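Lab notes, practical 5.
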Amino acid sequence: MPTIAIDLDGVLASYQGFDPENPPQEIGDPLPGAIDFVKTLLGAGWRVVIHTRNHSQSQLDDWLIAHGLGDANVGAVGAPLSALPIDATVYLDDRALRFDGDFGPILDFLLHGDPRPWWKRQGAAAGGTKA
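Output from the prediction step:
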């Protein structure tokens, strides 16, 4: 069974960044299409592991239940355990790059592109803030 590890904040839930002096108290609302995306993967036979370093295990569990994923076959890894590696086929994260064996495109993107997460580029209308 293939496994996808999905970052919660900025991928499945709205997110405005992390401030260590004022950490988020609640998990944001699901982004449009996020819950259906997870349910589609589950229906196609994928194992889904949702992880976050910004919220506790109980907060993550409560969020999954509130959005209809509490009884689904969804793995959930809240802080501090999410610092551990998750064995997955693929990883979905708002800050990730895909390496295809060639450093050139990655270097070009990092030096000449905009490496900020989508929610910082698109602003508050997309659930984030510009920075």
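Observations recorded by the TA: DSSP finds four helices and four strands in the chain. The domain at 3-126 is CATH 3.40.50 (Rossmann fold).
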